[in-house]
């Protein structure tokens, strides 16, 4: 995260608490490695079920301590603490290409690559803040195992574990919990596939399709889906429609009743819009088109165009959205919604092409209840290119005058501090032995959005990340079973690319800080001598030129604005993993520790002075002291290396002097 969310918001852990987190993670790794490849010990199913039932009751009553939680020293608020950095790639094969295995074949501290394990849940799910777990058994039924899923357990708007009983785990990872108990552990949500038992039964009879019976079955799914929608039960409506589409899309049913699948696709498009699954909503809308000329078909197609168009709009695919709404307008020229949408699209296209925003209206429209703006991103002034020593960076394509808008970007995702999804955690990274504050709520929201909209995976995964995945997993974003999301990559992308959009809607605490991810702006590198500054309107990031920028020049903003060189370097190293070598940092480095220490002391004195002394009617002596302090600070920047560079630290004092009037 950028310093803007961290400066005033640092979360302190006591030494003991930090040590406890470190030890827990290290011990877990040591113990599981020591038992690597050990044969699994079977569990008594009755005892296992009782254990889950007891733990679930305790968790529901708030009675059992959540083993992942830790307390910060300052506020005594409880935060989840997680070990990170023990990365592994998600499974990139489809279920059908994996070989089945049994619980008894699990080996400790092993990723069972190329294998799949079918299990069903016994007893309840124990829901904890960062991890949830349950007991499962395989088809033999005389054995049981613990299955734990970390953070990402929502799908189709509901809790994946609670809503289903039958699962297949792709390439199961068998390891220990932080408390030393054996467990199957799932980090990547795509490694857990839910199974519909009806499906399995049906698949056995694919050869002899009973057309009349199947048509009836699909219609029943559709009716049940409609009823669930009426009740507001979107997950059930989604499941029923999906099942109905599957049945109605069989060749024999399509031959007999082509419109049945179309009708269900049209209905599911609506559910998908409500579930923010825009990729599928768009496909559903298009799949339901009849393209016939009778009025009833035209009305149905209008609905389909509307749903597909809204989905495209939400995916910021404004040209496609315009075409879809124009098709709708052709069928229903007086459709008011189409005309409203077309006007909105026109505005978005203008914003996208020229950065033509109605800022006043946008500012007036945001509030804590509506913190996200209806706006497009404007990125055509810039391009992404290699930046020497900094991997990639953002560069100006044209001349940009001082004060002009360089780019504007609507966030891929923002979690605002006041929203229920905000969740801050402490992560201990085994790769660099550091404990950090981590916006777990943002990571969760990004993973969720990618699961819902797999077309976005590639552009998000291009961002800088310490863990890049394996050669295969880097490029495989989907299998026959759905999207593949590497959550470790998302976590590392968040660590190095998230910004804080500031406290726009009232005060924030470190435990509930607003954070977001802007994929284009994520390419902007840091400089302590930046040529750009950021502003936010809700989730829209605006980047302005702080001086004239030439075509081809790299754009920089300051990740950390701390005037103290050593503190700034430490923060850049810790949060961003690099050492700044900009001209200012090189000059400060050349100054040496002694001069820097003296300067930090003088700046602190100046800050304290401004804080303490009133500028109204000051004594001449006091004014002289202020003037001397300014001279001392500026004088500490000695030598040619400082020519043309800003001599920072006395700004506040200079403003104070400007206002001061001497007492007569
Ligand atoms: C938000 S990303 C910036 C874009 C990144 N360079 C890329 O290739 O995607 C932040 C990461 O860029 C690198 N970076 C940013 N500013 C840098 C600088 N001044 N010097 C060296 N590396 C820098 C660091 O690896 C940092 O963690």
TrEMBL record:
PROSITE patterns the record matches: SET (PS50280), TPR (PS50005)
N-terminal signal peptide: none
Domain SET: 371-560
SUPFAM superfamilies named among the record's database cross-references: SET domain (SSF82199), TPR-like (SSF48452)
Span list, region Disordered: 33-53
Keywords, in A-Z order: TPR repeat
Protein name (database record): SET domain-containing protein
Organism: Polyplosphaeria fusca
């Amino acid at each position: 995260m950028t310093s803007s969310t961290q400066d005033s918001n640092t979360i302190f852990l006591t030494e003991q608490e930090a040590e406890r987190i470190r030890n827990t993670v290290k011990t877990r790794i040591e113990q599981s490695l020591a038992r690597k490849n050990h044969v699994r010990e079977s569990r008594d199913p009755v005892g296992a079920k009782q254990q889950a039932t007891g733990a679930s009751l305790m968790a529901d009553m708030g009675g059992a301590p959540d083993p992942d939680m830790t307390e910060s020293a300052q506020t005594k608020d409880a935060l989840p603490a997680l070990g990170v950095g023990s990365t592994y790639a998600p499974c990139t094969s489809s279920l059908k290409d994996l070989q089945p295995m049994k619980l008894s074949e699990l080996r400790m501290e092993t990723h069972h690559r190329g294998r799949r394990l079918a299990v069903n849940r016994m007893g309840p799910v124990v829901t904890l803040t960062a991890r949830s777990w349950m007991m499962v058994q395989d088809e033999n039924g005389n054995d049981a195992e613990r299955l734990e899923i970390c953070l990402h357990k929502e799908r189709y708007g509901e809790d994946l574990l609670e809503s289903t009983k039958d699962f297949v785990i792709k390439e199961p990872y068998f390891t220990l919990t932080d408390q030393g108990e054996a467990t199957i552990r799932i980090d990547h949500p795509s490694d857990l596939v839910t199974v519909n038992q009806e499906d399995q039964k049906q698949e056995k009879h694919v050869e002899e399709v009973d057309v009349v019976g199947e048509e009836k079955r699909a219609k029943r799914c559709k009716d049940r889906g409609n009823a669930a929608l009426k009740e507001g039960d979107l997950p059930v409506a989604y499941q029923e429609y999906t099942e109905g589409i599957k049945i109605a899309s069989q060749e024999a049913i399509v031959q007999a009743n082509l419109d049945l699948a179309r009708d269900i696709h049209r209905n599911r498009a609506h559910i998908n819009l409500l579930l923010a699954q825009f990729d599928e909503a768009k496909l559903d809308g298009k799949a339901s088109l009849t393209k016939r000329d009778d009025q009833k078909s035209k009305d149905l197609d209008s609905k389909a165009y509307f749903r597909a168009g809204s989905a495209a709009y939400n995916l910021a695919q404004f040209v496609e959205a315009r075409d879809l709404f124009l098709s709708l307008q052709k069928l229903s020229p007086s459709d008011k919604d189409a005309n409203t949408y077309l006007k909105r699209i026109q505005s978005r296209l203008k914003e996208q092409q020229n950065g033509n925003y109605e800022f006043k209206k946008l500012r007036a429209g945001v509030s804590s209840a509506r913190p996200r703006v209806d706006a497009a991103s404007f990125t055509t002034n810039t391009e992404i290119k290699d930046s020497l020593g900094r991997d990639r960076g953002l560069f100006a394509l044209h001349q940009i005058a001082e004060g002009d808008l360089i780019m504007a970007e609507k966030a891929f995702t923002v979690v605002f501090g006041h929203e229920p999804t905000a969740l801050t955690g402490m992560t201990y990274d085994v790769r660099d032995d550091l404990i950090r504050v981590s916006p777990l709520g943002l990571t969760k929201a990004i993973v969720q959005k990618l699961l819902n909209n797999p077309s976005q995976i590639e552009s998000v995964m291009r961002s800088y990340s310490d863990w890049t995945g394996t050669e295969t997993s880097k490029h495989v974003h989907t299998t026959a079973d759905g999207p593949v999301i590497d959550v470790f990559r998302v976590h590392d992308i968040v660590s190095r690319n998230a910004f804080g959009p500031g406290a726009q809607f009232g005060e924030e605490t470190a435990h509930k800080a607003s954070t977001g991810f802007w994929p284009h702006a994520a390419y902007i590198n840091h400089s302590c001598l930046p040529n750009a500054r950021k502003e936010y309107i809700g989730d829209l990031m605006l980047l302005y030129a702080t001086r004239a920028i030439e075509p081809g020049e790299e754009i920089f903003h300051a990740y950390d604005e701390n005037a103290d060189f050593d503190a700034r370097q430490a923060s850049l190293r810790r949060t961003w993993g690099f050492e700044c070598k900009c001209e200012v940092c090189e000059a400060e480095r050349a100054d040496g520790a002694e001069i820097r220490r003296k300067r930090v002391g003088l700046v602190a004195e100046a800050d304290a002075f401004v804080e303490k002394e009133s500028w109204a009617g000051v004594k001449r002596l006091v004014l002289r002291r202020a003037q001397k302090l300014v001279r001392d600070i500026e004088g500490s920047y000695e030598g040619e290396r400082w020519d043309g560079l800003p001599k920072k630290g006395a700004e506040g004092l200079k403003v104070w002097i400007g206002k001061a009037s001497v007492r007569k």
